[in-house]
Design a protein that fits this description.
It is a single chain. By secondary structure, the chain is an alpha+beta fold. The protein has two domains: 153 residues, Jelly Rolls; 109 residues, Homeodomain-like (Arc Repressor Mutant, subunit A), CATH 1.10.10.60. It is built from twelve helices and nine strands. The strands form two sheets. The protein has a five-stranded antiparallel sheet with strand order 1-8-3-6-9. It has a four-stranded antiparallel sheet with strand order 2-7-4-5, with no helix packed on it. Strand 4 and strand 5 form a beta hairpin. It is globular.
């Protein structure tokens, strides 16, 4: 079963190229706003400084993936010869969507450890060095493809320790997570989720919490409310959303929404509109 397609269809990603040049000096990111970032070090040396973390000096071509706003800096001297390709990243559903929320604040990976991405990276760097018309649009789409391939890499090598992506990489949990993600409207019980993984209810619940970091019930609530938030962002009315995300009525969804977020759907939507109007 496909572990990624449902996630990417519900919480797709868009990229916007903003830097394609040598770096001399400091590029600083405050960690506020709506965007994540991807930085590709094509050549040279760059120092990455993350909030509350030590400096990381990169001396070989590398990928720096920051899935949501996170304070960090990139620094290079002219003699370092650092050439970077950078894009802002936006996931549908906002910064708290379950896909990006399951990832660490920052991933730093040498490009030679990412064979699944090699062809796309080669195409990107060639496109970036040329002056063809439509270059920026092409690079934006390639960044989006790169993120999907990066997720595939992380799943296949099981490189994440906890969260949704770690659960999808776990052989005993993947099937049940895929089924729940594909059918949020179904009235799932914990026993039925456990059956999908051929495990007892107690063993499943314990293993699920260890790997995903939530109980199965907490995950189901989080997944449904994340989908509801995404649909509200898209302009759907709450009375048209409830059944799609597993609730018998708009009032039942509103109660679950408040239990998860602390506010009503109406209050959440109003606060979202005010916040986005300020960006």
């Amino acid at each position: 079963m496909d572990r990624l397609s449902t996630l990417m269809s519900r919480f797709g990603v868009s990229a916007n190229l903003y830097y394609n040049d040598k770096l001399c000096g400091v590029e600083a990111y405050s960690g506020v706003g709506r965007h994540g970032h991807m930085h590709l070090l094509q050549a040279g040396t760059v120092t990455v400084q993350g909030a509350d973390e030590g400096d990381t000096i990169l001396t070989q071509p590398s990928l720096i993936f920051i899935p949501r706003p996170f304070e960090h800096r990139l620094f290079a001297r002219e003699s370092d010869g650092a050439r970077l390709l950078c894009a802002s990243i936006d996931f549908e559903g906002g910064i708290d969507n379950p896909l990006s929320a399951s990832l660490p604040d920052m991933l730093v990976l040498p490009l030679d450890e990412l064979p699944l991405l090699a062809t796309t990276l080669k195409w990107m760097f060639e496109e970036a060095s040329e002056g063809h018309c439509g270059k920026e649009a092409v690079i934006n789409r390639l960044f989006e493809l790169l993120i999907i391939l990066l997720f595939r890499h992380l799943l296949e090598l099981n490189q994440l320790q906890t969260g949704l992506m770690a659960g999808l990489a776990a052989p005993r949990l993947a099937h049940s997570l895929i089924r729940v993600n594909d059918a949020p409207h179904y009235p799932w019980s914990i026993a039925e989720m456990a059956d999908q993984s051929n495990m007892s209810r107690s063993a499943y619940a314990a293993h699920f919490r260890t790997i995903v970091g939530q109980t199965p019930a907490e995950y189901l609530l989080s997944w449904r409310i994340s989908l509801a938030q995404k649909l509200l962002r898209d302009g759907r009315a709450i009375n048209l959303i409830a059944a799609d995300v597993g609730y018998d009525s708009p009032s039942a969804l509103a109660r679950a929404f408040r239990r998860k977020t602390g506010v009503s759907p109406r209050e959440w939507t109003k606060a979202l509109a005010m916040h986005e109007g300020q960006d």
